[in-house]
Amino acid sequence: MVAVRVLVGTPMVDPVLALRVLGGEQIPGISFIVWDHRLPVAVVAVLAGIAFGLSGTTFQTLLRNPLASPDVIGVTLGASAGAVLAMTFLPADGRAVFWCALLGGLGTAALLLLVSGAGRPGAAGAVDNRFVLVGIGLAAALSALISYLLTRLSLQSAGDAMHWMIGSLSTSTWERAAVLAIALAGLVPALALLVVRLRILQLGDDTATGLGLPVPRTRVALILVAVTLSALTVAVTGPLAFVAFLAGPIARLLAGRPSFPLAAVVGAVIVLLADIVGQNMLPTTELPAGVVTGALGAPFLLWMLTRSSTSGSGR
Predict the structure, then answer these.
(1) Phi and psi for 128 in degrees, rounded to 5?
(2) Carries keyword Transcription (predicted)?
(3) What does the alpha-carbon distance between residue 48 and residue 181 come to, in Å, rounded to a whole number?
(4) Residues 6+ apart with CB under 8 A from 111
């Protein structure tokens, strides 16, 4: 799929020429298309999909709820609110948007932890349900804040903000790919160490405590890693809707159990596929990847809700 993203488009790129460019040869026009434009997009798509997939699966496994993802519990909207705040009150600068989006996501997580009491000992189900409910309420408040901020912007700035909030890979560069790569290099090993504790945490707070696991500290560490993965990615690509929500359940359907590595792969495939479809589906219009992921995620969410309702009825 990376090869398809690099070769397919307007104009089409000959695979032989693409290989020559990747080998270091300078070919006028083709070098820019392959090396400076399409390949960074493909790399950012893969890295963003991995980050969203791992983040969503962490939330869904920790909270024992397939509907729990950064999109649903307000983390993505927190990062978006931070970015829109930067666009409203700070000079138009990519770094300001990046840092404000990251801080917005982390600040949302801190508020979630504080209000839900996820950092305190308690019954696992009560804490998890409270965290999701607080997140949904916080997401509604953040959505209202974003709408208000958009009314403060000029028409052009509001249009730019709306385009960013859809989620797009069109501004991907090697610098942004490096930011995501460095973040994943630090966060993925941390998550791998915490997943072992997450398996114990799934046995219940009392059992985990009896086995010597510091439950509140472990829960907070998992949430912070998941939030940082999501917020960093939103800061780079914008909020690609439903990627974090889709990756975990699809991986679970394929593997028959929760699988973090498979969720990372599924997330990368979703983002790449969404970008390929968005760039080539309509002959005269290029759709941002966030439009396609939103179109994929909405019916999947309805299917998940219907399935949960049917399961709950005992049929």
Answers:
(1) -65, -45
(2) no
(3) 9
(4) 138
Nearest to residue 83, comparing CAs of 268, 245, 232? 232
84-93 confidence digits (pLDDT tens):
888 888 775 6
Say if residue 124's pLDDT is above 90.
Answer: no
Neighbour-count burial of 61, counting CB atoms closer than 10 A to its CB (0-12 exposed, 13-18 middle, 19+ buried): buried
Q: Report the b/e string of 242-271 with b at 16+ CB within 10 A.
A: bbbbbbbbbbbeeeeebbbebbbbbbbbbb
Q: Where do the domains of the chain lie, and which CATH numbers do they carry?
A: 2-312 (1.10.3470.10)
Q: Rounded CA gap, 80 and 65, in Å?
A: 24
- Which residue reads 């394929």 in tokens? 254
For residue 92 the two structure tokens come to 């138009």
Compute the distance between CA of residue 315 and CA of residue 156 in angstroms, rounded to an integer: 52
pLDDT surpassing 60 at residue 129: yes
Q: In a 3-state reduction of DSSP, which class is residue 86?
A: helix
The tokens describing 96, both together, are 């300001």
Q: How far is CA 150 from CA 89, 92, 99, 107, in A?
A: 11, 15, 19, 20
**242 — phi, psi (to 5°)?**
70, 0
Output the CA torsion sign for 288, 292, 297, 299. Answer: positive
